[in-house]
UniProtKB/TrEMBL annotation:
Matching PANTHER family: ENOLASE
Organism per entry: Nonomuraea coxensis DSM 45129
Entry's localization field: Cytoplasm; Secreted; Cell surface
NCBIfam families assigned to the protein according to its UniProt record, in alphabetical order: eno (TIGR01060)
Organism classification: Bacteria, Bacillati, Actinomycetota, Actinomycetes, Streptosporangiales
Binding site for Mg(2+): 242, 284, 311
Purpose: Catalyzes the reversible conversion of 2-phosphoglycerate (2-PG) into phosphoenolpyruvate (PEP). It is essential for the degradation of carbohydrates via glycolysis.
Protein name: Enolase
Residue sites binding (2R)-2-phosphoglycerate per the record: 162, 336, 365-366, 387
Length: 420
């Protein structure tokens, strides 16, 4: 039984309003959630309910979403028995009744779903990752993908590609993977400073230097990995990109990179060249979300050599992922709870991917809180990949700290990429 459901407007890491949700069960167990929020959002994500009152927080307030939780949603959930998180999520889906959660707000539904998951785990005396783990998978410690350099919508520099990450795939353990991320990040900062470049950070905590070409960033990353005493290689410290290509595609279909106009096939050849010269192992959103032809070509050209992750193109939506799988789009999916709008739909999306041999990377949003739910989700689902931003800033490191904590408690959990 849910006896209390609370919601209030708090701030995310960008200083924008978001939701804090608390739930209390009849036995006294409680759960909390802080709702993440993206900047470069996909067209088919669950939509956030925002106040739209331009006189307050530039319209970004979430007091209406909070009122949905304490009003409509609490009214539906209170005073009756719930036998599973899936039942609660199903009630939220039915109560909302829209394909994109626009009536209740995906921010409201995901906050309630996450908080309920925590409360039920607590009621069972389980860790959240234990509670979330499907019986068919083996939990494991995921390879962290640390944001090192930011561009696109996450920084005010001239870089078109949104994220340049490093992934310590060959690290012997979670703790050593975090150490590699931290040490390389520190060396990168020092190298940038020595070169007279800005070391301010983008929204995910990666540096936002005044580079314009992807190659300049990759060269700087290679040097930082090397200077920090690590080996830059696809099976050691690998590089991962999230160009977020939807953001640099013109209305006429051309992609704009470092001042040049590229056709879809030319952009694909740029990726092929970069992957030949640098130890890139994964590219997310290499093509725009509405460029079906580009995605098909990209997957055909590079899908054997590289992990190709669909973020905007899939939106953690099981129905959309199913279409993508049928159309041979990408070979992996980014997983964001607030794109789906409930924890159950997130788990369904992950299960669908697993069944079809699509890899999964659990991800933060560029707007985050100190909620570490996604660290638990990544371990629970055994997906082997996690993207949580730079190894710096409280809202990012709390996730990595939680991963280290779980690894310390459970040294029997394997670290590394999952078999596909
Ligand atoms: P977002 O960016 O949270 O701003 O959407 C993250 C991503 O594109 O992966
Ligand atoms: Zn992305």
């Amino acid at each position: 039984h849910i006896i209390d459901l609370g919601a209030m407007q708090i701030l995310d890491s960008r200083g924008r309003p978001t939701l804090s949700v608390t739930v209390t069960l009849a036995g006294g167990a409680t759960g909390w959630a802080g709702v993440p929020s993206g900047a470069s959002t996909g067209a088919r994500e669950a939509v956030e309910l925002r106040d739209g009152d331009s006189g307050r927080y530039a319209g970004a307030g979430v007091t209406r979403a909070a009122a949905r939780i304490t009003g409509t949603i609490f009214h539906r959930l209170k005073g009756r028995p719930w036998y599973s998180l899936a039942d609660v999520d199903q009630a939220l889906i039915e109560l909302d009744g829209t394909p994109d959660k626009s009536r209740l707000g995906g921010n409201a539904t995901v906050g309630v779903s996450m908080a309920v998951a925590r409360a039920v785990a607590a009621a069972h005396g389980q860790q959240l990752w234990e509670f979330l783990s499907p019986s068919t998978v083996r939990p494991r410690m995921p390879v962290p993908h640390f944001n090192m350099v930011s561009g696109g919508m996450h920084a005010s520099n001239q870089l078109d590609f949104q994220e340049f990450m490093i992934a310590p795939i060959g690290a012997p353990s979670m703790a050593e993977a975090v150490r590699a991320g931290v040490e390389i990040y520190a060396v990168l900062r020092a190298n940038l400073a020595a070169a007279g470049r800005p070391t301010g950070q983008g929204d995910d905590g990666g540096f936002a230097p005044d580079f314009t070409r992807p190659r300049e960033v990759l060269t700087a990353l290679m040097r930082a990995i090397d200077d920090a005493g690590y080996t830059a290689a696809r099976d050691q410290v690998a590089i991962a990109l999230d160009p977020a290509a939807t953001r640099f595609r013109d209305a006429d279909g051309a992609y704009r990179v470092a001042g040049e106009r590229l056709s879809g096939p030319e952009l694909i050849e740029l990726y092929a060249d970069l992957a030949a010269d640098f130890p890139i192992w994964s590219i997310e959103d290499g093509m725009a979300e509405d460029d079906a032809d580009g995605w098909r070509r990209l997957t055909e050209r590079l899908g054997e050599r590289l992990q190709l992750v669909g973020d905007d193109v899939f939106c953690t939506n099981p129905a959309v992922i199913e279409q993508g799988i049928a159309g041979a789009v990408a070979n992996a999916a980014l997983i964001k709870v607030n794109q789906a709008g409930t924890v159950t739909e997130t788990l369904q999306a992950m299960d669908l991917c697993r069944k079809h041999g699509y890899a999964r990377m659990v991800s933060h949003r560029s707007g985050e809180t100190v909620d570490d739910f996604i660290a638990e989700l990544a371990v629970a689902t055994g997906c082997g990949q996690f993207k949580g931003g730079a190894p710096a800033r409280g809202e990012r490191v709390i996730k990595y700290n939680r991963l280290m904590h779980i690894a310390a408690q459970r040294p029997d959990l394997p670290y590394g990429l999952a078999d596909r």
